[in-house]
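Can't paste images in this forum, so I'm doing it all in text. The chain is below; anyone willing to post the predicted structure tokens underneath?
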Amino acid sequence: MTEELLDAPASPVPLLRPADGLPAVVKDRAQLDRTAQEFAAGDGPIAVDAERASGFRYSQRAYLVQLRRAGAGTALVDPIPLGGDLSPLAPALTGPEWVLHAASQDLTCLAEVGIQPERLFDTELAGRLAGLPRVGLGPLVEQLLGLTLEKGHGAADWSRRPLPEDWLVYAALDVEVLVELRDVLAGLLAEQGKLEWAEQEFEAVRTAGPPAPRAEPWRRVSGIHKIRKPRALAAVRALWEARDKLAAERDIAQGRVLPDAAIVDAALSAPPTAQALAAMPVFRGRSQRRLTNYWFAALAQAAALEPSGLPAASPPNDGPPAVARWADRDPDAAARLAAARAVLLATSEERSVPVENLLLPDLLRRLCWTPPPDGDIPTALRKGGAREWQIELLAEKLDAALHTTAK
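Text version of the structure:
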């Protein structure tokens, strides 16, 4: 079965239009209630997807939600005219398994509109665990179903209204064959003895919740590696915070308010006056000239800070040092890490699972830098968030690796 599934047809069939036609977009409460009734009466899993406007908007809200279920067909739901509240759908969607692709990207924005799954199947994660070489939705559909999906609108500005018809077709097709894809992947995982692994992974994704806020998100400005002095880092922080405030107020993506490169250039140049700032690239543009005083006020605030208020040269770190320093600081830890990585690589090849899906790299580093004093590797892995299948597969092998010493 596995070889048959992995042999893609020579000429995949283009999937150009929804099989049942393009449904009208659900925009009012009466339509939403009718959709809820139809999906409650449907059968089997529910394919779910959401479109955001990442790169255009500050928020990560859902601007379109796509649903499909046997017996109910496809629904395209616009949360915007519905006040961002799709909770009337919740009773109909609670209980059946949801099928999503890369679920972690959509679950937060779906929860924001009032719908959450009780059970989950993630086709991207399933493809990874099955050892498939390409796990994007398009490649999986082509490889396993012999179909090709429309491309080109995934990164579009979905906050635009009205939504063009070709975008809606694209959105509808994203859930058209998701349940069929789920069934093929489930069969492949069962054949490989990995279906229980996948179920544990799906539940971990479902219950993970939104990521915790970063302690110092401004340090993720692209190009910040060019800056070493605390005063210049303070300028980056001040500009980032000013940009973040403005972006949130206007609901515009941060990079469209002010590019990272402009922040780094201003921090390095330290312009002494607002006029000097306005003469710099990007800041001399028409839209930025109106904000010259706003940006310069942020720089002036950073320049006036007492030394005690300046940021540290390096971000805070509660974990092990950079791996490049291990050999000097703790040769035995470096030897443990090399042995543990070899264990993961061998297991990855043996089981056809990517290394990063066997164990989180950060957990592996922490385990090798500070092995549990009591030697209880399974408990240490469990506390670090490892799933039971990972513990069963790796604990004994890692125990041996953690006894490695430098020669």
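The chain has a mean pLDDT of 95. The first strand starts at residue 13 and ends at 15.
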